[in-house]
Amino acid sequence: MTAVYRSELTPLAFLERSSIVWPHKTAVISDGRTISYADMAAHATRLGHALTASGVGSGDRVAYLCPNTPEMLIAHFGVPLVQAVLVAINTRLSPEEIRVILDHSGATMLVGDSALLASLAPVIRDLETVTEIVSIDETGTDPGYPTTPYADLLARGSDAPLPWTVDDEERTISINYTSGTTGQPKGVMYTHRGAYLNALGEIIHSHHSLDSVYLWTLPMFHCNGWCTTWGVTAIGGTHVCLRQVDAAEIWALIDSEGVTHFNAAPTVLIGLANAPEAHRFPQPVTITTAGAPPSPTIIQAMEDLGATIVHVYGLTETYGPHTVCELQPGFAEFDAAERASFLARQGVSYITADPTRVVDDDMVDVDKDAETLGEVVMRGNNVMKGYFASEEATRDAFRGGEFHSGDIAVWHPDNYIDLRDRSKDIVISGGENISTIEVERAIVSHPSVLECAVIATPHEKWGERPKAFVVLKEGQHASGSEIVDHVRGLLAHFKAPDTVEVVLELPKTSTGKIQKYVLRDKEWAGHDRRVN
Amino acid sequence: MTAVYRSELTPLAFLERSSIVWPHKTAVISDGRTISYADMAAHATRLGHALTASGVGSGDRVAYLCPNTPEMLIAHFGVPLVQAVLVAINTRLSPEEIRVILDHSGATMLVGDSALLASLAPVIRDLETVTEIVSIDETGTDPGYPTTPYADLLARGSDAPLPWTVDDEERTISINYTSGTTGQPKGVMYTHRGAYLNALGEIIHSHHSLDSVYLWTLPMFHCNGWCTTWGVTAIGGTHVCLRQVDAAEIWALIDSEGVTHFNAAPTVLIGLANAPEAHRFPQPVTITTAGAPPSPTIIQAMEDLGATIVHVYGLTETYGPHTVCELQPGFAEFDAAERASFLARQGVSYITADPTRVVDDDMVDVDKDAETLGEVVMRGNNVMKGYFASEEATRDAFRGGEFHSGDIAVWHPDNYIDLRDRSKDIVISGGENISTIEVERAIVSHPSVLECAVIATPHEKWGERPKAFVVLKEGQHASGSEIVDHVRGLLAHFKAPDTVEVVLELPKTSTGKIQKYVLRDKEWAGHDRRVN
After folding, report:
1. Looking at this predicted complex, what is its ipTM?
2. What backbone torsions phi and psi does residue B341 show, to the nearest 5 degrees?
């Protein structure tokens, strides 16, 4: 028996508690259907038994391919309840990418939305480990191959209570595959302990309370919804499900359900602010944003609509958010532009995370001068356990005793970090660092440009020089030199690209990330390294 | 080296973080003196070094005898920073009681307020383990025997950074001696892990935020201030020190410092509500109350002044609070009496605690019928590690795999616990249980009564009958039969006391707990047992 004074930390305890304290409170709203906390716990319990009856054992992986539905949410409890591991797969991936993840994770069961399962038909016969596919049919779509109806799966379960505990808090609770711009996908392992602590961090930093009505704009397959699946459940808030990010529907739900909180990437906020339905929030709303540095413009736009913005930053490898742009005394007296500029920084570590550092290649802290670039590294309870079945990748990511984000930032004198580049996409020209994000921002501000990518290319004299690949808007024209002149009008001249190549499209992953390595492959052919 | 993904949980990390994020924000206010978070961390660091230089090693106990001063607060970080153990002693104890605690804890150093040290003079020569006494002189009092000035202690230290970490999260961070109404004091051991988790629980349940201005009405020597020493520091709030509980001063500080939160026992709230300075709170104030079941009367009085009441319950053995009376949907629509009556219950477990149970003598859950009495038992991360150097007492307290509170409660159908008696102070009359708390509540609702205590007295026919000891308000009069009639108007007749004895004062411990055993001693003279 374990010590009286120790329980293994697990987010399972959160659903147990909320079902004891608020059995009749609405836990989930989805398309007008409501689920109480008692029913949510009962559903998770039945699912756990059903998985066991289906041969899913401790440590086995159960894959889910679902939009933000009640079933996807409840799987965050029902799967770990029998000490199994949840693998929530990005629904935007290609069938082939999904096949690779299913095989790599070794999942034996796949539970999916029938419409999404239908698109998997071409790869179904190639799956190596999946032995049963369960279909949740909400749209009347036939997957086109034999599946078990979700109701039949649940019918194998029972309502006998299961303990909401885990035998070891460092047991893996979920594996989240990164979409990675290069190479094979990597399975990021979360522990019960890490999920528990990050969920408390989300409650504190996003200011959740019993009155939270949380709208699921963020996919649950992204870092288990930044652990908000567990956090909002812990605080006894109400989850409002959303199958697809649609500005009109989001605005409608904000009004009809009294939404108080949501998490969203800046691109989603841009869509909301520019939707015809945009209006002042009818109740106080807290928006936690991450995924890319939000521009001061969008921060101010959302504040003008009455929202409180919380800016957080992290990676799949850090359970989602790892830093938060904490406010300072006097912040309320800043003018709108100062507030937005302050809030655009990534900030400082979560209350449950170890201090975040910005380091040079020797793992030494860079100067806190808001200028020196370094890599963001993290450690502690908010960092993944490692990559599943990828010891070498884990060792590499953890070299020097810290997780290497690959993200490039400056460190302000006040200890706040400020991202300058994702994935080391930096150009070092004559010893001067050039942020490709900065150059890209300048280029897309040209009225004819739709999107672009800037990479480093080798250069005899300067070592490296930036080169831009530009896609123009339909029906628009701009020469390379026009674009270079435009950048020179905005940035130091040395930052302007030497070459601009107008292309019809940029190479992208299935999630829309630009694959700069494809561009670099071409430009660096014949070179041993890709930095000069 | 430890894993990249694991840091040992410790509240030390909270001060590190706040000193990084808000170095210039006011951490502490005391008599007009303000201390920033950077200074607080520097002070704790210097103290840590000074303790090491004074021969205090890992695991050694350092005793403090101080009112709620900045030094007492900072010791909560400086002492564990060098893996030593803080023993904060109740300043209201007698010199002899303090001597017993010092010897039992084996503390080698005692740091004390010079005025409090002066009162220790009679026992100083008898101390078995203390080799150095450090004096903090804020009142110009000479202890009357040789001590080291606090400044001299700090001068032995240095400003070299120390890691804000612990080697094992289950290491003891503090020992809190219970004031117990009988027998020898017991040293309750807290761990870094438990303190960390409870501190997060306090933040969530008392609704603390960066804007918290927390007034120290609760002694820091009580359960390390219910872990609020660590919690308010974690959230970056401001601590407002208070040397003595004085209603006039509390009201003055609420106004002058913009106090938003304080913790206090119901007796303190009664004093505040009846003080001539009482007025509507000038800003929203959250009062977290515990220590005895608050009467609906005082809850309503504080709500009428504009406060939000959070009712929590726990013991020294549970890091202070362990349960909270969580609100339910619709609570805001309750009328004032319903709200107060609801809030008077002890409620449900903290978000960081395992479910609290009410059990019979065989450790079986009692019926949730709001009537059956049972003992409150707890387990999990919010329960002490054990009693220091008292294995037998620990084994007894943990029998059956749960911590035995000794408190008697009923369990409501909605899973909320509701205390009926502390320490089994129950009257069994003709086979019917009578809760002395219930009877006491009825008596104090009489307009002439200041306070009272009800105990069981032996009775020929019924086995036991309740007897009341009553203190009247100044200038008020009420006969015993008047009071009995008043109770009969509120409760079943058999619950009314047979006898009412009007007394000038009730016997109390140094912390203000009524010593019912003193009353019982008299009433049960000549009997072998104290239950009939």
Report:
1. 0.87
2. -70, -40
